[in-house]
Amino acid sequence: MPRLDHYWDTVNGVSLLLFPLSLVFAGVTALRRLAYRHGLLRMRRFAVPVLVVGNITVGGTGKTPLVIWLADYLRSRGWRPGIVSRGYGGRARHWPQQVRADSDPSSVGDEAVMLAAATACPMCVGPDRPAAVEALLAHTEVDIVISDDGLQHYALARDLEIAVVDGTRRLGNGFLLPAGPLREPASRLRRVDILVINGQGVDGEFSMKLHQPSIRPLRDGGEKRASDFAGREVHAIAGIGNPQRFFDLLARLGLRVVAHPFRDHHLFRARDLQFDDGLPILMTEKDAVKCRRLPCRDCWVVHIEAQPDAGFVHRLSNALKEIVDGQKTAGHPGLPDL
Questions:
Q1: For the chain, what are the domain ranges?
Q2: What is the pLDDT of residues 38-71, one digit of tens each?
Q3: What are the backbone dihedrals phi and psi of residue 209, each rounded to the nearest 5 degrees, phi first?
Q4: Which pLDDT belongs to residue 2?
Q5: CATH classification number, 43-209+307-325, choose in 2.40.10, 2.60.40, 3.30.390, 3.40.50
Q6: Mean pLDDT on 191-213
Q7: Closest by CA position to 168, among listed 55, 84, 63, 245
């Protein structure tokens, strides 16, 4: 039987059948926003600026490369950025947890370990985002915080919101969960500070492109170019929110892809990497943090870098200046109209 998200791209019988539940979901989320707006639920504000990078859809939109780019950009401008995230998939007994590049993905989450390794930023994860920020600030000299995937976490007040939308799938059928992929109404995007399209944006949107990826060995060895694999048949494994995007990327680079999609945050086992046909195995960086401890021959990691367009960089620079100069109200809640 197809997974539920199979029905989210179009209006169909299944999505229409589930639509009444979407109305219930919409009502619950509206009440929650109302509670934050009127102070019935508490928002935590901090002395340092908080930037939220997220989306309003379930599944991957490509925001992780943007978080990495943003951390590098802030550091190049003299900031000391730190990152907080939920630590999804982590099974730690106590939260929040500090994350390093060598942390155990099964404890703190695969994406958190990957971000810590890719950015070299202090990082703290936990279901309670304000508690994660508090712990991060208590143990580091961070002066600006990036919240990865925290658009709906209204308990954490924010100074800037960046939403990322997949340029291919966009908002699917436009329905809220469970009839569609939306966590919040599409009107939510009109309230964010910066809207980024992973692909080509249109009026009022900023575009984000991906550099030609490099392909690195899972363990030891030299880096290769994507062209070194062009025309070759490869196994591609992906346990991410939208595995097809990864497979399509490899196909566009000229690789003959044998696709192996897994659920997001899949905990890989040795048998997942055993194909016994001598073909190379390519994987995402997020999956690589869980596979490095597994026996794997001829395994490669596809390293992707994002590059937002010049308009985004200009808008971000101005927004940061407004925050520093006090022209922008701190604690911007990003609450959409009800």
A1: 43-209+307-325, 214-304
A2: 999 999 999 999 999 999 998 777 888 999 999 9
A3: -105, 160
A4: 65
A5: 3.40.50
A6: 88
A7: 245
